[in-house]
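Risk register update: the risk of archive-format incompatibility is retired. Evidence:
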Amino acid sequence: GKTLGRVAGRTSGEISIGEKTFKLKADEDGITLHGGEKDSLSFKDFTGKTFASPDEKGVIFSYLSPDLENGYPGNLLLEVIYSLKEKENIFNIHYHAKSDKDTVLNISNHIYWSIDDGGLDNVSLFVDSSKIGKFYDNSLLLKDVEETDDLHLFKTLSPLKNKLDKIVSSSDIK
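Archived output:
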């Protein structure tokens, strides 16, 4: 899957950090998608290095995003670590980043899973976050980030089907 960023999702065509405003690479509507669409991290060539231990194996992908690439301040060194713990049947993605300037960063991943005949019955999800994005009405732009409710919380490994059924039944999604 693709690594999204420097900011996953949609933002307006500028950001402010302290007293400075930075103009981001945006489309004709003034929206920056996933950090710059065709010039975002999704389309960069990362270097890769494999690793293995008795319990885990994986690959570390690295990329240095130069200062002001797509308008974002700071030379940003990003590592994306994919690993598999075969005995436990656990796949992890970890992100590590360091910038030499104050910047914004919201990395994510676009993996699409092909669930076998068991459907979602045997799939569990863990997300190490207690916050959720809130969007402007009739917009794809993020308005705020706030603490999530128990319904949307995946801070412990949870069966995905049960959670999704509850989320859908409690919302306007039909």
